[in-house]
Amino acid sequence: MTVKLSASEVSVMLAQSMETLARELLPGGKKSGAEWAAGSLAGEPGTRVSVHLYGPKAGVWKNFAGDESGDALDLVAACVTAGDTKAAYKWACNWLGLTNEKVEERRVEIRQKAEEAKQQSDELARKRRGRAREQWLAAQENILDTPVDFYLRGRGIDLRRLDHPPHALRFGAEHYCAETGTSLPAMLAAITNLDGRIVALHQTWLGQHGGQWSKAKLELPKKVLGPFAGSCIRLRRGETGQPLKKVSPAETVAIGEGIETCLSVALACPELRILAAISLGNLGTVRLPDSARKVLILADRDEHPAARNGLRKAIDTHLAAGREVRLAMPPKGKDFNDAIQ
User: Fold this and answer.
1) Quick one: pLDDT at residue 272?
2) pTM of the prediction?
3) Separation CA 230–CA 192 (nearest Å)
4) What is the DSSP string of 283-327?
5) Per-domain residue ranges for the chain?
6) Please, are residues 177 and 205 in contact by the beta-carbon 8 Å criterion?
7) In which band, very low, low, confident or very high, does the pLDDT at 1 lie, cut at 50, 70 and 90?
8) Is the pLDDT of residue 174 over 60?
């Protein structure tokens, strides 16, 4: 009797060698942290296609240009077999060197490696959370008259117009940057879960250019240390001044993506409770207390299909949770920070 691995099992096996596979399928791409970035599914240089290389998400990919996504076997189908999944399965089995005699042995190996990968991922996440807390606590609490303050002013955000600067923001005078291998000034933001515990750190490296402070001239001037799904940067408590867990049903919780966008809205509407979700994908997954019944999404003006679909998904997620959802978009520019400038 011929024994075959299922498509999902083959996909898991491909994911175990994801960096090697990504280099072969997308040769014009390059490694960026724990991801492989390419310009298209044809393997051109760029950043529109992103593939997770390690951990529990290994093999998961997304093409932001065409709003396509899937697992490792789907990537083979998209890159090699023009979407033909049966042909992709055959190609993958050949690439993996599978034979009928090895199937059961491979299944045991898959289970073992999956458990090992989960343990390693959990341990790595724990270490990153610890580093995030340590680095934020070690940073300077008062950000007024620091490069963070000067950078935000250059973006049209004068913190003195608020009753106090956001407690989530701190200044790292010498914050290590892996891209340069040196320490640079940085704006650090605490990313916290619903319980208020720091789970990750948002980092914006800064530099002086023409006498003005702005984002450092790096390939990736902004990075997040630690997993942050479901968490957020708490920038304003609003007029109630209560912690997030004590939000009342009558209060509106405003959620945007970036720090600068959200602070721009805070200047115009200081009475709002404002959270930065960090990414479009996290807009709908930020955990709110059951008492939160009203959400205002601070959307970027982005007509790309992937952005529109991501926004729709965020709205639907909050609606499914039984919340009233309103949408705010900037009158001009891509985001609210563009609008105030």
Assistant:
1) 95
2) 0.72
3) 9
4) TTT----TT--EEEEE------HHHHHHHHHHHHHHHHTT-EEEE
5) 7-98, 229-341
6) yes
7) very low
8) yes
Q: Which CATH code of 3.40.50.2300, 3.30.1390.10, 3.40.1360.10, 3.50.50.100 fits the domain covering 229-341? A: 3.40.1360.10
Q: Which H helix or E strand runs over 92?
A: helix 85-96
Superfamily, domain 7-98? Zinc finger, CHC2-typedomain (3.90.580.10)
Tokens representing 48?
Answer: 């529109």
Three-state DSSP class for 38? strand
* Cα–Cα distance for residue pair 332/181, rounded to 1 Å: 38
Q: What is the mean pLDDT of residues 152-159?
A: 96
| Residues 76 and 25: beta-carbon distance below 8 Å | yes
Q: Cα torsion for 137, 140, 142, 145, to the nearest 10°? A: -160
Residue whose structure tokens are 């093999």: 59
Q: How far apart are CA 317 and CA 286, in angstroms?
A: 10
For residue 199, the model assigns a pLDDT of 95
Lowest mean pLDDT among 7-11, 150-154, 254-258: 7-11
How many residues in the chain? 341
Please report, as a single letter, which amino acid is at residue 333.
G
Residue 157: exposure state from Cβ atoms within 10 A (0-12, 13-18, ≥19): buried
Strand-pair partners of 182: 177
The per-residue pLDDT for range 189-218, each reduced to its tens digit, is 999 999 999 999 999 999 998 989 999 999
User: What is the pLDDT, as a whole number, of residue 340?
Assistant: 85
Average pLDDT, the chain: 90
Model confidence band, residue 306 (pLDDT cutoffs 50, 70, 90): confident
Residue 5: strand, helix, or coil: coil
Q: Shortest CA distance to 261 belongs to which of 294, 241, 283? A: 283
Confidence at residue 138, expressed as pLDDT on a 0 to 100 scale: 96
Cβ-based burial of 142 (10 A; exposed 0-12, middle 13-18, buried ≥19): exposed
Cβ atoms of residues 155 and 96 within 8 Å:
no
**Helix or strand run (H / E) with residue 254:** strand 252-256
